[in-house]
């Protein structure tokens, strides 16, 4: 990763996408260490974390993580999920945060020099292009080492820098003694959370 000491940087984390990429690589992310890594490298202005929440459940498995992040340096952006039934009659949950993330990147652009996007979603290619036209550098963090790769080729090509998530694992992976909550996996009987 290439950062300059006085460079104003913000992290934009597509929670569902980053979780899926880390899980595909076989590790959990220590979000405290993630902030520390970037704070050491640059002038970290803000770290946004985007996730959809299932509101009608008595207990949401992601709630402990959301609360922990909210109290530990992250700006949380959440919204309720939408439930639907697919063509095969299976209940699914949809929680797309792309618009919220894109709006925040555009609103923050004038206060930043560098955007770090934690997502492999190809829908963000135009967003990356738009902030590059404003003079910002864009780093995308995802993985090509999973099967299939978690990053869309067009997003990887558009980014100024691509950082392979697996290469960050030794610096941001959750260790056994860390008490910060991890994003829980959903069981087979749970509804599928769709990000698109």
What features would you describe in this structure?
- With 196 residues, the chain is an alpha/beta fold.
- The protein has a single domain (8-194), classed as Rossmann fold, CATH 3.40.50.
- Helix content is 33%, strand content 26%.
- The protein has 7 helices and 9 strands; from the N terminus they run E-H-H-E-H-E-E-E-H-E-H-E-H-E-H-E.
- The chain has helices at residues 15-25, 31-41, 63-71, 98-108, 125-133, 153-158, 165-172; strands spanning 8-14, 43-53, 75-80, 82-85, 91-94, 114-118, 137-142, 161-164, 192-194.
- A 6-stranded parallel beta sheet has the order 3-2-1-6-7-8, sandwiched between helices. A 3-stranded mixed beta sheet has the order 4-5-9, with no helix packed on it.
- Helix 5 links the parallel strand 6 (114-118) and strand 7 (137-142).
- Residues 183-196 have low confidence and may be disordered.
Q: Gist?
A:
The chain has helices at residues 15-25, 31-41, 63-71, 98-108, 125-133, 153-158, 165-172, and strands at residues 8-14, 43-53, 75-80, 82-85, 91-94, 114-118, 137-142, 161-164, 192-194. By secondary structure, the protein is an alpha/beta fold. The protein has one domain: 3-Layer(aba) Sandwich (Rossmann fold).
């Amino acid at each position: 990763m290439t950062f300059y000491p006085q460079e104003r940087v913000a992290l934009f984390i597509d929670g569902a996408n980053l979780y899926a990429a880390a899980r595909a690589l076989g590790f959990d992310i220590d979000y405290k260490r993630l902030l520390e890594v970037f704070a050491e490298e640059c002038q970290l202005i803000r770290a946004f974390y985007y996730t959809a929440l299932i509101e009608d459940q008595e207990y949401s498995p992601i709630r402990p993580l959301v609360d922990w992040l909210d109290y530990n340096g992250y700006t949380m952006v959440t919204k309720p999920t939408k439930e639907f039934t697919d063509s095969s009659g299976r209940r699914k949950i949809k929680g797309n945060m792309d618009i919220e993330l894109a709006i925040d990147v555009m609103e923050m652009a004038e206060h930043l020099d560098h955007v770090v996007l934690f997502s492999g979603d190809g829908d963000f290619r135009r967003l990356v292009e738009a902030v590059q036209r404003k003079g910002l550098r864009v780093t995308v963090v995802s993985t090509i080492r999973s099967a299939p790769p978690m990053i869309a080729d067009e997003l990887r090509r558009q980014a100024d820098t691509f950082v392979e998530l697996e290469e960050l694992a030794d610096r941001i992976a959750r260790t056994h003694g860390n008490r910060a909550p991890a994003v829980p996996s959903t069981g087979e009987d749970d509804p599928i959370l769709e990000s698109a």
